[in-house]
């Protein structure tokens, strides 16, 4: 795991005078502090001399013959040929000597902002009444940045505050880093260290419980096929509340097969796609009708 720290200077905004200059004593720039965490590739025990497979799918082939749980655990616990960018925050205090406390109002990655906006767009019910996403689940929550932001954002919403947010990640180092290195803390946030595949399948008491289910299951720059298949999509649907619960998934690019599988599970007209403006990521939103 690698932690990056850096500073950014930006114009302070309202400090300018009417003639275009800056008011006396006002700083010309403000300084902002950011911190991010990246999971580095790592080999399985005993494989130090062997070349790393180039894709997550090659890991599946390399681990053929093992129990399914072992295969999934291997994929989800950082066995990748490329670094996986997990979480980035803006720190409240620009002091380099201060501990980082994440600013919950700032959600740095654009794709996470698109996921949050997709959930916010569903906050009005079919009759125009407020419909708060009172309970949320995120599979692949990383350090908890999206959860931290949405909990804070909902507290100022007319629809009301989110009562419960469960963030699931298979990497215990990420969960710990969110709390100790990135300062992502919130009393309403529940963290679970678990495989997303197993969590979705083995928590029947959670079925139909969530207004919004977020899915961000990257390994390196890709989403393994096991998380794009019909069986997993059906599990996601069962977690969402009937009659309006949503599943919001982040993909590296448009995927016609994934969209078709979502339409088969949720129905025609229940699936929308949003492309981010920077990069190729696509946010797929599925709304449960039954």
Tell me the strand order in the biggest sheet: 6-5-4-7-8-10-9
Proportion of strand residues:
15-25%
What is the count of helical runs? Answer: 8
Summed over residues and divided by their number, the pLDDT gives a mean of 78
Rounded radius of gyration (Å): 20 Å
Shape call: globular
CATH topology assignment of one domain: Rossmann fold
Q: Which CATH first-tier class of one domain would you pick?
A: Alpha Beta
**Fraction in helix:** 25-40%
Protein name: Methyltransferase type 11 domain-containing protein
InterPro entries: SAM-dependent_MTases_sf
Explain this structure to me?
The protein is 25% helix and 22% strand. The protein is globular, with a radius of gyration of 20 Å. Helix 7 packs across helix 8. About 19% of the residues have low confidence. By secondary structure, it is of the alpha/beta class. It has a domain of 178 residues: Vaccinia Virus protein VP39 (Rossmann fold, 3-Layer(aba) Sandwich). The strands form two sheets. It has a seven-stranded mixed sheet with strand order 6-5-4-7-8-10-9, sandwiched between helices. It has a three-stranded antiparallel sheet with strand order 1-2-3, covered by helices on one side.
């Amino acid at each position: 795991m690698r932690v990056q720290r850096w500073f950014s200077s930006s114009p302070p905004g309202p400090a300018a005078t009417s003639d275009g200059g800056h008011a006396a004593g006002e700083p010309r720039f403000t300084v902002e502090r950011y911190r991010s965490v990246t999971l580095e590739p790592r080999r399985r025990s005993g494989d130090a001399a062997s070349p790393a497979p180039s894709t997550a799918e090659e890991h599946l082939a390399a681990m053929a013959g093992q129990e399914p749980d072992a295969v999934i655990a291997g994929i989800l616990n950082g066995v990748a040929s490329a670094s996986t960018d997990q979480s980035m925050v803006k720190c409240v205090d620009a002091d380099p000597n201060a501990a980082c406390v994440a600013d919950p109002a700032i959600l740095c990655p654009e794709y996470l902002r698109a996921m949050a906006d997709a959930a916010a767009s569903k906050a009005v019910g079919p009759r125009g009444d407020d419909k708060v996403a009172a309970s949320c689940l995120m599979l692949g929550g990383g350090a908890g940045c999206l959860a931290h932001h949405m909990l804070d954002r909902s507290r100022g919403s007319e629809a009301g505050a989110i009562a419960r947010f469960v963030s699931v990640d298979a990497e215990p180092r990420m969960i710990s880093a969110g709390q100790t290195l990135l300062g992502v803390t919130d009393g309403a946030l529940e963290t679970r260290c678990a495989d997303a595949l197993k969590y979705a399948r083995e928590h029947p008491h959670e079925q139909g419980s969530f207004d919004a289910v977020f899915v961000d299951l990257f390994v390196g720059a890709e989403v393994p096929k096991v998380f794009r298949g019909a069986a997993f999509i059906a599990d996601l649907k069962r977690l969402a509340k009937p009659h309006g619960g949503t599943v919001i998934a982040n993909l590296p690019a448009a995927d016609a097969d994934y969209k078709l599988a979502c339409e088969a599970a949720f129905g025609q007209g229940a699936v929308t796609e949003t492309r981010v403006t920077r990069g190729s990521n696509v946010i797929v939103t599925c709304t449960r009708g039954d």
